[in-house]
Each structure stands twice: as C-alpha cells, then as structure tokens.
Amino acid sequence: MGADAWIEVGRLDDIPRRGARRVRGHDPDTPIAVFRTADDRVFALVDRCPHKAGPLSEGIVQGCAVACPLHGWVIDLESGEAEAPDEGSVTKIAARLDGGRILLSLASERSAAEAPKAACA
Questions:
Q1: CA–CA separation, 95 vs 18, rounded Å?
Q2: pLDDT the model gives residue 109
Q3: Residue 1 belongs to a domain
Q4: How many degrees, rounded to 5, is the angle at CA 113 between CA 37 and CA 93?
Q5: pLDDT tens-digit profile of 18-77?
Q6: Structurally, how many domains does the chain consist of?
Q7: Exposure b/e, 71-81, CB count within 10 A at least 16 = b
Q8: Pairwise pLDDT comparison (116 vs 78), residue with the higher score
Q9: Does residue 38 sit within a domain?
Q10: Contact 38/12 with Cβ under 8 angstroms?
Q11: Which domain holds residue 70?
Q12: Residue in 5, 3, 7, 8 with CA at minimum distance from that of residue 100
C-alpha cells in the first residue's frame, strides 16, 4: 500500500449532520474523530483535545469547529488549532468524500502516530 493510500472508514450517512464518530485507523493507538458539518463536509482529527486529551468525537459541532466536552475548548476542524484565548492544536487527518464514502489518508494518519500525544491529567 502506497503512502498516498486512502482507507474507507464509513459512509456519510453513518454520521448525523453536526455530529462525529470515533473510528479506528491503521494505528490502534491513535483514535480518530470524523466530523460531519451541517453542509455535509467531512473533517478528521486525532480524537484528543490539546488541553486534557478530551474526546473531541463527543463534542458539539458548530460550523467548522468542535467544542471539547470536558472543558469547552473550541477546535477549528479545518486547521486543528484551538480558538483564542486557548492555545494548542490537534493533528489533522486528511479526509475526503468519494460518493457517499468517507476516506482517510493513511499518510496523514502515520504522521499523527508520530506526533506527541497529549497526557491525561
């Protein structure tokens, strides 16, 4: 499988609008949150808030951002960056739609596995 390989992780209809699902990618130690916006765009991030590693997949999606369910940090789905005044970022995973199928890039997932992981406190 090449570095530019994509894997199917579900269908768009599997995720409610303004919702998310946690999926397992190639690396079982790197949980991935796949988000669907109200206008049917998909984004994927490592499922750990940069603050206290909260599960972003359980957060509330508003526009192109998600609010962490633990402490309310707002993370931009396009960049992975926390909105000010908070600071930090979460690793993005390249995601795209092919028909109704959601595909994630294995190359970006491998990069995420190599990134430092936030520690729970």
A1: 16
A2: 53
A3: no
A4: 20
A5: 999 999 877 788 899 999 999 999 999 999 999 999 999 999 999 999 999 999 999 999
A6: 1
A7: eebbbbbeebb
A8: 78
A9: yes
A10: no
A11: 6-114
A12: 8
Closest CA to 79 of 108, 43, 114: 43
Comparing C-alpha atoms, which of 13, 72, 70, 20 is closest to residue 43?
Answer: 20
Q: Is residue 120 part of a domain?
A: no
Q: Which residue has the tokens 């994927």?
A: 44
In the β-sheet with 60-62, what is the strand arrangement from edge to edge?
A: 60-62, 65-67, 74-76
H, E, C per residue of the chain: CCCCCEEEEEEHHHCCCCEEEEEECCCCCCEEEEEECCCCCEEEEECCCCCCCCCHHHCEEECCEEECCCCCCEEECCCCEECCCCCCECCEECEEEECCEEEEEHHHHHHHHHCCCCCCC
CA–CA gap between residue 16 and residue 10 (Å, rounded): 12
Please compute the mean of the pLDDT values over residues 88-101 and round it to a whole number.
Answer: 96
Q: Which residues pair with 11 in a beta bridge?
A: 101
* CATH (domain of 75): 2.102.10.10
